[in-house]
Amino acid sequence: MVFLKATGIVGSILALIAVVILFFKTLIAFIAFLTGALKIGIVLIFVIVFVAVGFLVFRGMANSRRKKE
Predict the structure, then answer these.
(1) Is 8 helix (H, G, I), strand (E, B) or coil?
(2) Which residues have CB under 8 Å from 11's CB, separation 6+?
(3) Domain map (residue ranges) of the chain
């Protein structure tokens, strides 16, 4: 008897609702993954730029010391 209910119109609607909920849940998880990856990328780019500027400043100071000698 329970299997007959699952194949009826109510069971179909419940299955469709379950599939839609699962789709939105997966979509939200994917968007969360993309925003997390974007945040990590922005932080990495900032660190690379910060290190590059520090390296250029250090190199400029070293070159100015060599020129004084």
Answers:
(1) coil
(2) 5
(3) 2-68
Asked if residue 42 lies in contact with residue 48, where contact means CB atoms within 8 angstroms, the answer is no
Residue 6 pLDDT > 70, yes or no? no
Residue 5, pLDDT > 60, answer: no
pLDDT band at 9 (very low <50, low <70, confident <90, very high): confident
Q: What is the pLDDT of residue 69?
A: 62
Q: What amino acid is encoded at 47 in this protein? A: V
Alpha carbons within 13 A on the beta-carbon side of 11: 8
> Per this entry, what is the length of the chain?
69
